Amino acid sequence: MINNFTLRSVRYMLDLSDAQMVQIIKSADLDVTLAEMASWLKKDDDPAYKECSDKVMGHFLNGLIFFRRGKDENFPAPEIETKITNNIVLKKLRIAFELKDTDMIDIFNLVDFRVSKPELSAVFRKPGHKNYRECGDQLLRNFLKGLTKKLRD
Predict the structure, then answer these.
(1) pTM of the prediction?
(2) Where are the domains of the chain?
(3) Complete DSSP assignment for 54-100
């Protein structure tokens, strides 16, 4: 999935300003400007639109965990992946919002998207595991939509 879509979804979901989005990324030790953030949050057909890199997305997801759960100096910061996949995005969102399997299934049900517990656990397995399954765009998009519905309603 496009990183920009995830940024826009989380921003809307939590009703964050551009400055707050920048602060989230800065909390994960990456400096970005308000102008860069504004260009990543533009719609795809806007001339000022710029694609958000995996590096920035990785820092944003870790920053979101710190934003939602707090930063504990006693524990090392989560690893910042070089290649961001939908599986990683879903996993980091699960951590940031402190969700269990049943919570996630309820979130999918909010948008009438049926996912079984085994299907969901397959998405969180390590690549190479015999039951690993890639998280498709539709699964992530419905999760973001359901989480938005849960938090904003």
Answers:
(1) 0.91
(2) 3-69, 86-152
(3) HHHHHHHHHHHHHHHH---TTSPPPP--SS--HHHHHHHHHHHTT--
| N-term to C-term CA, the chain | 25
| pLDDT digit string (tens) for the chain, length 153 residues | 689 999 999 999 999 999 999 999 999 999 999 999 999 999 999 999 999 999 999 999 999 999 998 877 777 777 788 899 999 999 999 999 999 999 999 999 999 999 999 999 999 999 999 999 999 999 999 999 999 999 987
Choose among 23, 84, 86, 32: nearest CA to 57: 84
Can you read off the two tokens belonging to residue 21? 């989005």
Using CA atoms, how far residue 12 sits from 16, 29, 64, 80, in Å, is 7, 23, 14, 24
Q: Report the candidate in 93, 91, 8 with the shortest Cα–Cα distance to residue 43.
A: 8
DSSP 97-138: TT--HHHHHHHHHHTT----HHHHHHHTSPTTSTT--PPPHH
From residue 144, alpha-carbon distances to 62, 91, 101, 113, 125 in Å are 17, 12, 15, 12, 20
